[in-house]
Design a protein that fits this description.
Elements: H1 6-24, E1 50-53, E2 84-85, H2 88-95, H3 105-117, E3 122-123, H4 125-135, H5 139-142, H6 145-155, H7 180-197, E4 207-211, H8 222-231, E5 235-238, H9 243-251, H10 257-265, H11 270-273, H12 275-286, H13 288-297, E6 300-303, H14 308-313, H15 324-334, E7 339-343, H16 345-348, E8 355-358, H17 361-367, E9 369-371, E10 393-396, E11 408-410, H18 419-428, E12 433-437, E13 441-446, E14 451-456, E15 459-470, E16 476-486, E17 490-493, E18 499-503, H19 513-516, H20 519-530, E19 533-536, E20 541-547, H21 550-557, E21 563-572
Parallel strand pairs: 1-7, 4-5, 4-6, 6-7, 9-10, 11-12
Antiparallel strand pairs: 1-13, 2-3, 8-10, 12-15, 13-14, 14-17, 15-16, 16-21, 17-18, 19-20, 20-21
Length: 575
């Protein structure tokens, strides 16, 4: 009788569970505000250690109604938008703050003019920007990041219900139009429960800790993640880890947390908007052992999206060394006592070396890949003066948290055409592999078994065997071998750091290719049909796609999207 490995058994059951979750999501709101975690008689296989989500995790909430079914309604206590005071009194309060003392007289006078001309004293962000634009179209663009965000934070409006309680973002995962995001939350919760049942077989709800430090304002999304995971069947706590807390603990300067939050995290005046959460951060700063005890007791840890450089500083000391908090979770991960997940920046930060921090595929071709601090994200919209172009690909050579040991992680992948940037970064840094996770999709990783599986709406792109060199004329050439695993697919990583034992899901996608497929995917299909494809990119750069075999192309030619063994050659065309 054939012996089936523990990991194969787990993948079977987890895939089955994922499919059941998808099916149940369409039943009339049976999951809303209920304990949905099944009580298991005994622990199952350790399963996966990491859940790496590619961002774009579609979830119905009062701030994201476009992800909700048409019939959804929220309670009167729901926050429906972020509002700003723009009366002259509130503006003067903001201008009196030390962070805005560097504004010029012309800038402050123009802000006052915009306030007087504004149609309402309470406005949303677009209305605020429009009001300022009518007076001085360049004013906001000319502000530094510190000035711009301080202005917004100082003007942000507290919102309360009739009974005086603060309005919060409300989440309804049962009413999300697409089932993938809610199912991902539930599968993460289930895996956290399995971790808990290793020491407590009768447990029915895991304890999940969330860290929201990827965001400049880590307080804004607390209610979102707590609500999402509670509805998925977990008990949830917010861990106020961020760069400010680390600095406060390290330097014994907890009384300076408001200033540290502004200097290191980039937010201002948050005690006014989130008094309970800022007080919690203050208490844990003064008694950090309580924080470490919480990290020892959680069964799952989830990191939000935003800026991976900010995420990283939440886990490092001010002198860029691993903090005690990071040591705790690394030890627990190594002993399979915890499952760790992240989305977007929370996934990218898992990288062990050469963590990507910004840039586009076009930027990689035009400016190369640079081991440097990335420019402000505002520069991608408004041109900024600086040594680093806004679209250049930047990375941190020392990597991120080091939880994912197999290569570079990238996110929002197919949606933002990031294949070229990951190829060039992986090759330029001599990294073994690169992994690009699509939105609303997760890569599940069993570290010890070096086993990968994919769940969600789309897939995961893998690049391996990369090379970067110059030809005889000094022109750069980049090579690699790529694969694409769709939801339900799985593979192992062999000792040569290559994918092996690839098993594709039998998942036929019925779409109008010209209308719905990203350009890169269309190139793959064409290359598989014709045996080769050459596509001209910007700046006379040519991308050549060469299928290694007909077998590797078979799934994509059968409308299953997956493929393996597509060789890439990126080079400057001859003059």
């Amino acid at each position: 009788m054939k012996i089936i490995s523990r990991i194969k058994l787990f993948i079977f059951f987890s895939t089955l569970a994922f499919c059941l979750l998808l099916q149940l999501l369409f039943v009339d709101n049976v999951w809303a505000n209920q304990d949905v975690s099944p009580k298991l008689e005994k622990p199952l296989s350790p399963g996966f250690d990491l859940m790496l989500v590619g961002g774009g995790l579609k979830t119905c909430s009062s701030l994201s109604p476009h992800s909700c079914v048409d019939s959804i309604t929220f309670s009167p206590n729901a926050k429906l938008s972020i509002q700003y005071h723009f009366s002259l009194d509130w503006l003067e309060r903001a201008l009196d703050h030390f962070s805005l003392q560097t504004l010029s007289l012309n800038q402050t006078n123009n802000l006052r003019k915009a306030s007087r001309k504004a149609a309402k004293s309470s406005v949303n962000l677009n209305q605020l920007k429009d009001a300022v634009y009518q007076v001085d179209k360049h004013l906001l663009d000319e502000l530094t990041d510190q000035q711009y965000y301080a202005l917004l934070d100082l003007l942000e409006q507290e919102q309360h219900s009739i009974d005086g309680s603060p309005l919060q973002e409300q989440v309804r995962i049962d009413a999300t139009t697409k089932p993938y995001g809610p199912a991902i939350y539930r599968l993460f919760t289930l895996q956290a429960l399995l971790k808990k049942q290793q020491k407590n077989p009768d447990a029915t709800r895991p304890l999940i800790g969330i860290v929201t430090a990827s965001a400049r304002d880590p307080f804004e999304s607390i209610s979102f993640y707590i609500s999402a995971f509670e509805q998925a069947g977990a008990d949830v706590i917010w861990l106020p880890l961020d760069a400010a807390l680390q600095a406060g603990i390290h330097h014994d300067q907890c009384e300076k947390l408001p200033l540290l939050r502004q200097q290191l995290q980039g937010n201002t005046d948050k005690a006014r908007l989130y008094p309970e959460h800022t007080q919690l951060q203050q208490r844990l700063c003064e008694s950090p052992e309580n924080l470490y005890q919480q990290l020892e007791h959680i069964d799952g840890l989830f990191l939000n999206g935003g800026d991976q450089s900010l995420t990283l500083t939440a886990w490092l000391t001010p002198d860029k060394k691993p903090s005690k908090a990071l040591a705790v979770i690394k030890n627990r991960l190594a002993n399979k006592q915890i499952v760790i997940g992240g989305t977007s920046a929370g996934t990218a930060v898992m990288t062990a070396a050469n963590m990507i921090t910004g840039g586009t595929s076009d930027g990689a071709i035009q400016h190369g890949v640079l081991s440097a601090k990335p420019p402000s994200e505002r520069c991608e919209i408004h041109q900024c003066d600086g040594d680093i172009p806004a679209t250049a690909v930047t990375y941190r050579a020392k990597g991120g948290l080091g939880l994912f040991p197999f290569g570079i992680m990238d996110t929002h992948f197919s949606e933002r055409d990031r294949q070229i940037r990951l190829l060039m970064l992986t090759a330029s840094t001599d990294s073994e592999m690169g992994f690009g996770v699509d939105e609303n999709t997760a890569l599940l990783v069993n570290i010890a078994d070096k086993h990968l599986s994919v769940i969600g709406e789309h897939g995961v792109w893998v690049i391996e065997q990369t090379q970067a060199r110059k030809d005889d004329n000094g022109k750069s050439i980049f090579k690699g071998v790529s694969h694409y695993l769709t939801s339900g697919s799985q593979a192992d990583i062999d000792n040569k750091q290559r994918l092996a034992n690839i098993e594709f899901a039998n998942r036929v996608v019925s779409v109008n290719m010209a209308a719905n497929y990203p350009a890169y995917q269309q190139w793959i299909v064409q290359a598989c049909r014709e045996g080769r494809l050459s596509s001209k990119l910007i700046d006379d750069v040519e991308l050549i796609l060469l299928p290694s075999s007909t077998t590797g192309c078979k799934p994509v030619l059968n409308n299953q999207q997956s493929y393996q063994g597509i060789k890439l050659l990126l080079q400057q065309q001859d003059d």
